[in-house]
Amino acid sequence: MKEKKIVGSGLAVLLVLAALSCGKLDVVGTDSKASFDQLLKQIPQSVRPDEMNGGWSLSAPDESARFIWSANYAESPGYDVMLEFDAAPFLAAGLDPDKIPDKFAFYQGKLMVGTKLGEEQLRYQGAVTPLSSYDQMVKLKRSVIGYHGALDHYGVNLGEGNLFEWAKDMATNDKDMVFVLNPEPFIAAGLDPAKIEGWAFAKVTVDDEKGKPLEVDKLLKPFNLK
C-alpha cells in the first residue's frame, strides 16, 4: 500500500510539473498579450470600437490602414481578424480590383483581407475590451499568434501570407507596428509593386514549415510610434 501511495504521489507531482511546464512553454502566447497591451496604450487615440465588424480597430497614425479583430466570433458579420487599407495607391500602381481573389474585398475605396477564426460565442469574465478580445484569441485560436524572429515582432496570421505585426519591445525597435501583405495576388491582378506609394516592397526572412529561414516577398507598411 505504501508503495502505491508513493507512486501515486510521484505521478501527481509529475502532472503538476508538466502542467506548469506547458504554461511556461507558451512564451509567445503569454508575452504577446503584454506586448499588445503596450501597443494599445502607445496610441490609445487610434483604438476604437468597430460596430460594423463587431469588434475593435487599431488604426495607423495616418489612418491609411487598420487592423480589426472580433469581440465575438459567433456574431462577426464577416472576418474575425482582418486588415483594411486605402485602395488608392494600389489602383494608381496598376491594380485591377476585378482581378483580385475572392479573399479580398474592395469597398468604398478600401481593400480588405482577413480570415474567419470560428463560430464560438465568446464568454468574458469582466469587461469586454480590446485587450480582453485579443486574450480570447490567444486562448482559443493560439495557432494564429506567432513570433517573427527576424524583426523581433509578434503577429496575427491572417492567412495566405498576410499579417499584422507589432514590436515585442518598442523601446528597441523602430518598426512598432507593421501591416504585412502577400504581394502575389496583387501582382497577378496588375499591380506594379515598385510603383506603389506608402508601402515597401521587400524581401523578408521567415521560417518555413520546418523552421528553416526562407526569404519571401512582402508589401510592408511600417510605423514608428515613438
Summarize the SSE layout with pairings:
Blueprint: H1 2-25, H2 27-42, E1 47-50, E2 55-59, E3 65-70, E4 81-86, H3 88-92, E5 104-107, E6 110-115, H4 130-140, E7 145-148, E8 153-159, E9 162-167, E10 177-181, H5 184-188, E11 200-207, E12 213-223
Antiparallel strand pairs: 1-2, 2-3, 3-4, 4-6, 5-6, 7-8, 8-9, 9-10, 10-12, 11-12
Q: How do the helices and strands follow one another from N- to C-terminus?
A: HHEEEEHEEHEEEEHEE
What would the principal axes of the Cα set say about the shape?
globular
Number of helices: 5
For this structure, the quaternary state is: single chain
Biggest sheet strand line-up: 1-2-3-4-6-5
* Biggest sheet statistics: 6 strands, antiparallel
Tell me, rounded to a whole number, the average pLDDT: 89
**Could you name the ranges where pLDDT drops below 50 across 5 or more consecutive residues?**
1-24
Strand content: 25-35%
> Span from first to last CA?
65 Å
Q: Helical amount among residues, as a percent range? A: 25-40%
Radius of gyration: 20 Å
Count of separate structural domains: 1
**Based on helices, strands and strand pairing, what is the structural class?**
alpha+beta
Report the strand count: 12
